[in-house]
Design a protein that fits this description.
Blueprint lengths: L1 E7 L4 E7 L5 E5 L6 H10 L3 E6 L11 H8 L2 E5 L9 E3 L5 E3 L2 E7 L8 E5 L2 E5 L2 E2 L2 E2 L9 H12 L7 E4 L9 E2 H7 L9 H9 L9 H9 L21
Parallel strand pairs: 3-4, 4-5, 5-6, 10-13
Antiparallel strand pairs: 1-2, 2-3, 7-8, 8-9, 9-10, 11-12, 13-14
Helix pairs in contact: 3-5
Amino acid sequence: MVFRQLFEPLSSTYTYILGCEESGKALLIDGVMPTWQRDLGVIKQLGLKLTHTLDTHIHADHITSARTLKQEVGSRIAHPRIDGLNCTDDPLEEGTALAVGSIKLHPLFTPGHTEGHHAYHVNDRVFTGDALLIDGCGRTDFQGGDAALLYRSIHKKLFSLPDETLVYPGHDYNGRWCSCVGQEKARNPRLGNGKSESDFIKIMNELNLPYPKFIDFAVPGNQACGVCPESLPEELKAYCQPMK
């Protein structure tokens, strides 16, 4: 399997390219609007053709590039069925794998950060979106978030994977690229080292995080699979412009 991990600095988002060497087909997980041209360039350099884009959830901190990539190269939009997006070509749900060439991607329903969040398990790695981060996790105070539900999602779904499973998160703000299930179980300060569900709920309730600055534009844009609003304020236009 061909694999690339790419970073978008404005929202500190990781985008992932997975390619099948036999068929030349590729899928892209959590694409970001400012980097769609870069991502297509990387896919072309690898000798691959993008056939599917996937998002782990309806993002609040960036606009997905799914719709733009579909318009450019005809890729199909795959998204969790539970979110009920009319623009989805291939609804995803746990228990039904998505096959892209020889790649078998297994959705894992992991609500708690958002009510429709999914992680994606492929071979020896899991793409955890905003549910499980390196030494952290996504916030639980908007979009149907629920701390108790996130704790159970992580412990029952993600922490049940083999310890050596590589963890590739949706974001990192400290220059880290990858972790593993065993490491997060052992030392994640919010979830690991025997933290109980009540411990986790207390931690999340006391975070007192600011209101996300882009959420009011990102959520409706992503409910349309990646539409930048015309009324975007000047200070937020970089979220929809090509990365320099």
